[in-house]
Amino acid sequence: MSADPHAEHQALAERYARRAGLEDRYSFLQPDVWQTVQERQRALIHLLRRHARRPLAELRVAEVGCGAGGNLLELIQLGFESAHLQGLELLPERLARARERLPAAVALHGGDATVAPIEAASQDLVLAATVFSSILDDGVQSRLAASMWTWLRPGGAVLWYDFTVNNPRNRDVRGVPVRRVQQLFPQARLQATRLTLAPPLARVACAWHPGWYGVLNTLPFLRTHVLVWAGKPTTAGGDVAALKG
């Protein structure tokens, strides 16, 4: 376990600072980016159709590492209610951008997510998208995962999207395999879907023609990310009020 989580938070801020100037690489106008996003959205919709019992507008969701609010905007477009959404972001500049973009009804919290004012068993879903791969301290990962699990009500789920393999060209990130997800949420029942063509390959392929994304993505070993539904068991004898699984 980390003896000083604040040191990892500072290191995390420095890692993100080194990514400044890469906005064009992640622009939705890039064919590899919009195909990656649409693939992930389809997989998410499939999970929600399978597991959601109540209307999406009734579900309460917290996102860890919400960045500039893009994922929360997607949830609103899918039918989630703004007043039932919360975003948590460590970096002040990203949090400010989220506040500019998101409806005022979305609650946003800055700083260390583990001390955010979120009540235990209050959330139906807790989302973490490409967050843990940027946290290189195992203890900080475990501490954050424990908080996320506490926020979930019985029958809820962690929604996880991240890459599973290391990038030898980028020491600021580390792949998180599914077995590590299970370690972080040992009581969870996992449903994992492999997706997302390896981004470096996708950029090169789409520079030739956008259609190459779909062709290469038919090969599972070229997919570097997973979308995981980590379900929290219901209490003994209890019923799942909002979500199945």
Keywords:
Rossmann fold, 8 helices, 245 residues, alpha/beta
Give the name of the CATH architecture of the domain at 60-196 and 224-231: 3-Layer(aba) Sandwich
Computed CA radius of gyration, to the nearest angstrom: 18 Å
Question: How would you spell out the order of helices and strands?
Answer: HHEHEHEEHEHEHHE
Q: What structural category characterises the helix and strand content? A: alpha/beta
What is the strand and helix layout of this fold?
Layout: H1 5-17, H2 31-51, E1 61-64, H3 70-78, E2 85-89, H4 92-101, E3 107-110, E4 123-129, H5 138-151, E5 152-163, H6 178-184, E6 189-197, H7 199-208, H8 211-216, E7 223-231
Parallel strand pairs: 1-2, 1-4, 2-3, 4-5
Antiparallel strand pairs: 5-7, 6-7
Please provide a written account of the structure.
- The protein has 245 residues and is of the alpha/beta class.
- It has a domain of 145 residues: Vaccinia Virus protein VP39 (Rossmann fold).
- A seven-stranded mixed sheet has the order 3-2-1-4-5-7-6.
- α3 links the parallel β1 and β2.
- The protein is globular and about 50 Å long.
- The C terminus is likely disordered.
